Amino acid sequence: MNQPQSNTVIRLSLRWVLVALLAMLAVGILGGMIGSQLNNPRTPLTRQQDQLVTTVQEVTISPSKTSQTIVRDHERSVLLLAQGSFANPTILGTATVITNDGLITAFHPPVRGEVFALDSGGNRVTLEAIGADTLFGLTYYRIRDGVIAPLNISESDPAVGAELLSLSRSPESLQPEAEHHELSEKTLAETGDPVGWQQVGLISISEQNLAGTILVDDTGAISGIYTGPQSSEAGRILLPSDIRASLNRIASGKREENPFATRGFSVRSSFTSSDESQPIVFTLTVDRLQPGTPASELLEVGDILTAIQNQPVSFTNNAASMLSIEGELSLTVRREGREVVVTLP
Question: Contact 217/158 with Cβ under 8 angstroms?
Fold first, then answer.
């Protein structure tokens, strides 16, 4: 006879069922958190002061390029000119590479004897003397050995108020130096300046700079060459238009040509006004005629040049460059209240 099968009944209260479910849920959440940490390593937090360091280091002269970058990219193109012994050189000023074939330009008084350059490593750089452009006061050399990337010359003159960066080298350490300047004014050249100068720029300076120090804009293009102090608080710079005009004279083999001497007359520049009700205007006045030249027969001392080759005479149009064309030269002058056109052969 078969025995009846017995069934075991386990009774659990609802409270213990809920406790078990909550325990399983807690274990699942904890396991998920541990797995997430193992598979995704924690990224260290960035401290607030670390973020501020980057901001402080990005001191710029324009929104697009830092002054540190300009110095780093162009400092090899800036050299010190020197004379004498290599062990104890006499520093003449700063020179800058401006063409791909190693032509460098400088601004310094006439010197005798060999001139060499010093680079950032204190090495002597042999130079070939090209000569001086007395019309604009610039002296040119060429680097014989090695290739150094040139600096471009700005296509336009900087506006008054523009912020420029000077690039030079310390005569003591030979390391690059940079300083911010503001173009505070454009003014007439002074008596005794090179005859090609018509206008010069004035910059604020905080210390004496070496002659020939270049000033660059926020793209790294040459926007001026420092030519010396105007006063204790201002220095003068030769503007890009005159630098380019001088370079063109070198390229065309006309470095020694003086267009005023060739044409037989000289001028003086000034700002004048006929009366207080009229605005001040820039004028070029004939002040000297060379005897025996066509100019002495066609022009008169006191004539005011109003146009050269039909281009109006202005503060920004360099007269020396306009007179340097070949062939006949058409001049419009104001003489005793009337306009006269003369043609110089």
Answer: yes
